[in-house]
Amino acid sequence: MDNILIIGAHFDDCELGAGGFAAKMASEGKNVYKLTLTDNVTISGKMGIDVDYQSSKNSSSDACRILGINEITSYQPSKCGELIYTKETMQRVEEIISSLKIDTTIIHFKDDKNQDHVEASRISETAARHCPNILAYQSNMYTLSTAYYPVFFVDISDYISQKINALECYEKQHNRFNKLFQANISRNQFWGHSRKVDYAEAFHPIQFKLE
Ligand SMILES: [Zn+2]
């Protein structure tokens, strides 16, 4: 794993699912990139969420700086909530994977209750089909018809502060740190406990290069 691309539907998905892994790989000198497929624009009075594109980009830029990873800013995103698989979208992602010589693509798990996540997974998996390694993550915890049963664990104990600091970049906009973000960190602790470390991220492997 030398050139790693983490693809999320929304700006915080990468940090939620693989923020610790990203920071760890970057600290080891790997090239880590983040790609977001939608503009993140979300307004929900009920949930107290009012997120616009520019502030999302600013938050993401700060988060990437904290994690030490590179954000792909040239990509023209779809509208949040309207991401759909098209050949054109898939090929734009494929072009990024090819031009950056990505050997490891980290994508959304295929089963999810958020439609953008489902479409992002399909777009990413197809676009990365020639990529040696594909791992799937789950950014939000849902009860699904297909169990998310990850078996590829990464010890992120030394990088948990970076992950939390990166997630906090989105706190003001999303106003849900005590729910989504904190639950995510608790799950990292749970997975860490199962592997006898403090914190771990866990992935569902889709394909691995033959050695
Ligand atoms: Zn999301």
The rounded Rg comes to: 16 Å
The backbone outline, from C-alpha atoms, is: globular
Helix- and strand-based class?
Answer: alpha/beta
Percent strand equals 15-25%
Give the domain tally: 1
Give the helix proportion (percent range): 40-55%
- Which hetero compounds are present in the coordinates? zinc ion
Residue windows where pLDDT falls under 50 for at least 5 positions: none
- The CATH superfamily is identified as LmbE-like
**For the largest beta sheet, what order do the strands appear in spatially?**
5-2-1-6-7-9-8
Distance between the termini: 12 Å
User: How many strand units?
Assistant: 9
What summary fits the major beta sheet? 7 strands, mixed
Number of helices: 7
- The name of the CATH topology is Rossmann fold
One letter per element, helices H and strands E, the order comes to EHEEEHEHEHEEHHHE
Q: Give the CATH level 1 class.
A: Alpha Beta
Q: If classified by CATH, what would the architecture be?
A: 3-Layer(aba) Sandwich
**Mean of all residue-level pLDDT scores:** 93
Annotate the secondary structure layout:
Elements: E1 3-8, H1 13-27, E2 31-36, E3 42-44, E4 49-51, H2 53-67, E5 70-71, H3 87-99, E6 104-108, H4 115-127, E7 133-137, E8 152-155, H5 160-168, H6 171-174, H7 177-194, E9 200-207
Parallel strand pairs: 1-2, 1-6, 2-5, 6-7
Antiparallel strand pairs: 3-4, 7-9, 8-9
The protein binds zinc ion (ZN).
